[in-house]
């Protein structure tokens, strides 16, 4: 059985490791921790072996550690790097490349410039096959993954009728679990957000996509406000909602008043980590005006990239066909049930 190690056990690493642990096709060797805190025992209680850097072994004497990260990597086919932004590149150079291990990186890294971790930014809907022969691949960030899920079906359905996309990303300040991270009472403006360039790495560098971003004091998801201009009259909102209703990983909601309503419902349904693992079109906010379609959708910041990592891992480890990988992930994450429950609950 193929063996996977998850380096980092924060918002993303804890989720990915849970799903790999539930996957009968893959063996989870363990997870990497860097600070001797409560999350070490949390991981152990959840049935995972915890490994720490060789240089920090002494700091973890109070915990039941299984060994060093360096030794765990010696026995592994692929590592999911879930480290804080920028550390993935360092880990690639210091650990993964010297040990010749396949690696998946997260959205805080880059595919551009000197510190790029890969030449491929993955989005399963767009470029699954390109990952089949790669050793190092970056999974797009939550915002980049969400935009890809919207833009690709539009491109497929309307191609030359599309004139431009203007997107405002309203980004969450912190994740639900990051209770030590205070929400600051301001609306922060982000200069030159990376998200547009990241999307263009698979959408085409000259694509007419214009992205700006602000950060607001909430933990309850991102919200994207998107205006799509067409060469002629824009499609009706009904047509657009039908297009997205037929897409995987997108729920079309009619009555959610805010992003917290969606998370709260996910919690009542006992979805893992309160995640929906998808984006949600807020259909009550859609408008078609002359040549312009206006839509809003919320993006489950922590959950959306987890099934994507799982699909990507299958491409790299098993060279599965897209359909095989996609169906395995869909079943493991109960994607259809989640979508149905959300759409029924928030129906008009
Ligand atoms: N949070 C999100 O919503 C989200 C969504 C999509 C993508 N991402 C991306 O996913 C990555 C991880 O983000 P996160 O939110 O999960 O961060 P996080 O919650 O801060 O967790 C980071 C984890 O990495 C560990 N770590 C520290 N130094 C490390 C190193 N040198 N190598 C490996 N692991 C190390 C930390 O260990 P200790 O706690 O033990 O110190 C912690 O467990 C980033 O690239 C981020 O941009 C995040």
Topology:
Blueprint: E1 2-7, H1 11-21, E2 26-32, H2 38-45, E3 50-52, E4 67-68, H3 69-74, E5 78-81, H4 87-99, E6 102-105, E7 121-122, H5 124-127, E8 136-139, H6 142-158, E9 162-172, E10 188-190, H7 195-203, E11 209-216, E12 222-230, H8 237-245, E13 250-253, H9 259-268, E14 279-282, E15 287-289, E16 292-299, H10 305-318, H11 322-332, H12 335-345
Parallel strand pairs: 1-2, 1-5, 2-3, 3-4, 5-6, 6-8, 7-8, 9-11, 13-14
Antiparallel strand pairs: 9-12, 10-11, 12-16, 14-16, 15-16
Helix pairs in contact: 1-10, 6-7, 10-11
Structure description:
The protein is built from twelve helices and 16 strands. The protein has helices spanning 11-21, 38-45, 69-74, 87-99, 124-127, 142-158, 195-203, 237-245, 259-268, 305-318, 322-332, 335-345; strands spanning 2-7, 26-32, 50-52, 67-68, 78-81, 102-105, 121-122, 136-139, 162-172, 188-190, 209-216, 222-230, 250-253, 279-282, 287-289, 292-299. It has 348 residues and is α/β, with parallel strands linked by helices. The strands form two sheets. It has an eight-stranded parallel β-sheet, sandwiched between helices. The protein has two domains: 2-140 and 305-332, NAD(P)-binding Rossmann-like Domain (Rossmann fold, 3-Layer(aba) Sandwich), CATH 3.40.50.720; 142-303 and 334-345, Dihydrodipicolinate Reductase, domain 2. Bound molecules: NADP nicotinamide-adenine-dinucleotide phosphate. Residues 7-13, 32-35, 82-85, 87, 91, 106-109, 141-142, 175, 301-302, 305 line the site of NADP nicotinamide-adenine-dinucleotide phosphate (NAP).
